[in-house]
Amino acid sequence: MANITKKVSWSSRADESGVTAEGTPLLNGSEQPRPSRQLSRDGIFQVGRLSTVDLEEEMTSEEESLRGRPKEIPHNEKLLSLKFESLDYDNIENQLFLEEERRMSYMGFRCLEISRWVVCGLIGFLTGLIACFIDIAVEELAGMKYRVVKENIDNFTEVGGLSISLILWAVLNSAIVMMGAILVAFFEPIAAGSGIPQIKCYLNGVKIPRVVRLKTLVVKVCGVICSVVGGLAVGKEGPMIHSGAVVAAGVSQGRSTSLKRDFKIFEYFRRDTEKRDFVSAGAAAGVSAAFGAPVGGVLFSLEEGASFWNQMLTWRIFFASMISTFTLNFFLSFYHNKPGDLSNPGLINFGRFESDSGAYNLYEIPLFIAMGAFGGLLGALFNKLNYWLTIFRIRYVHRPCLQVMEAMLVAAVTAAVSFTMIYFSNDCQPLGSENKEKYPLQLFCADGEYNSMATIFFNTPEISVRSLFHTQAGTYDPLTLSLFTITYFFLACWTYGLAVSAGVFIPALLIGAAWGRLFGILLASITPNGSIWADPGKYALIGAAAQLGGVVRMTLSLTVIMMEATGNVTYGLPIMLVLMTAKIVGDYFVEGLYDIHIKLQSVPFLHWDAPATSHWLTAREVMSAPVTCLNRIEKVGTIVDVLSNTSTNHNGFPVVMQGADSDEPSKLCGLILRSQLIVLLKHKVFVELARSRLTQRKLQLKDFRDAYPRFPPIQSIHVSQDERECMMDLTEFMNATPYTVPLETSLPRVFKLFRALGLRHLVVADDVNRVVGLVTRKDLARYHLGSHGLEELQLAQT
């Protein structure tokens, strides 16, 4: 995600709600704070907003001269960023929407349903094509690089001067990675990493800027090719999930806002609710293309991604996943000169897993569970180390040029470490006719032999995982596997979080497969008849599942993905037990890797349930107040002033109506969004103009859909002084039935209602239906259960 900016001010107001700011503007960091509340005598439970803190003071002339130098960016994980807006996953049931629904016939609804299936098919097809392009590009470019380096090593092994080969390898890696890092750091920073945390946030209802843009897709695809070809300890599965989500967001809208092309199709789907469901399908199609796992893709989208689900969506997502896998395998069959052969399981081909010792034995179950516990421990260590490293990057490596230099450094170090490990390895294996090594390095081995360490270092990670799964016993020396596990663990930990497009699935699988195979070799050597039942490939599979489960904390979906990717359901039970154990052990120490990175970016992410022990908190304490309300018939100048107020930048406004008696307080009658008001101002939907122009075209939902999702800023809307005196009737456009809660509603009930319905605003009303407050995502996300009980995050303007 985006880097934290230099200026951080803690504030007491979220930017989603229509809450009036008292005092000076929020962006100046001097808003009046809400007083803190002491909730227990011993100070353990403290909930309340802190006073505003401005971390960027006025600079002296000397400090001004040093401004160009890299400085530390203050970062506090106890912050919640105000820069993230929410998505509108709740339908706006205004009069325009209801009229359209009434006019639509049964055949119209059936056509819409067919259109949803067509869109899902297109998503699967295009995602499969992108996966095919990535696979072919990586295979061809990596093959060219490894052939050049191998030829150079073979030549210099005989005449001396292998340092030239080391320099060549490091330079090639650094140059290739540099291209990918420049694309990410300078052109589209949101394309960094796997993209899974960003998509997870999007499906949760958080609007991550630029996450589903066409430019992001292009940079993502080119970046992941450069990362894998450049020899980094990365995979291409996470970027495939992100790529599928971007494809889904674009195809479902029937236009490209980046290319400014509108194909006038799928216009009904131009709203957040529909786009969310298609993005879920795109994420699943990405998993399916990466692993050849359609069912696993559906479960991944359900378990790790989607926050909202329904039965029909399940079948559409499965359809998109099937089309994605079929498309990838169909085109790859022609590339591999096997037209029509669809046996390739996916982008990441583990091959069909068949253990030499057959199925597992009952007495091996405790061993598998122990491996799961070890994988959970290693995964927790991986996540903790990466957490500290990410904090360091946020604070110090925040400039694009520094990010590119770090990526090049990691690429060079990876090449140097790989070369050193291969150079000093004495693990030589016979190169028989059944051996399928693509780039066997002889180095100092005898004729007819190859260096076994080079098999896992001098290949793409996917090929290395396949080798650890399928090669026969005795192929790898225990020392080779031990050294590889240790070095690759730290390389992968260092690599994840760089300004490159990269995933963590394959590195985690590779680490686990290495120590799992080592465990199997040790079992075979120390137990009676161990060589019969302790197949190293079997334990490599279990170790891979344990390590990946310990890092990302997935259970059900990862079990199915592993079974579909290996083409073997025999080990379904052991894999499930291993993943559950790894998750339980890992969660005891630290969160999963994706959740850590979401928290580090201060995203207001809503988990499944409200924090425990929060029932005593009510909407009265949680809500933001006072609230900026608009009258049902409001003056245009007032609306323009409210929208132009940079100190609030609210996105939702309750609409109130004065009672018959002038002394009677105004009561809630609806809710209207900033985006709706801007469209109304743009089309000048004023009461006076409607009366004077008998032929004025009535505003329709199409006008709002055409402006979606990039609504123009209020500064671009010109309103003359005469027009400011006009009136605007909001009755037809506001949501006349917004969700409301009483003041004394408990936090868990507010949380459940808000999250289950995908709301953006929840109005708090008193017993006579007067608006007293507004609850937004940030009001709920700031409460969490910490080490000292219920804690409250500080809101940061970043």
TrEMBL record:
Protein name, entry field: Chloride channel protein
Protein keywords: CBS domain, Chloride, Ion transport, Membrane, Repeat, Transmembrane, Transmembrane helix, Transport
Source organism phylogeny: Eukaryota, Metazoa, Chordata, Craniata, Vertebrata
Family statement drawn from the similarity comment of this UniProt entry: Belongs to the chloride channel (TC 2.A.49) family.
Cross-referenced CDD domains: CBS_pair_voltage-gated_CLC_euk_bac, ClC_6_like
Source organism (scientific name): Gymnodraco acuticeps
A Pfam match: Voltage_CLC
Gene Ontology MF: a single term: chloride channel activity
Source organism superkingdom: Eukaryota
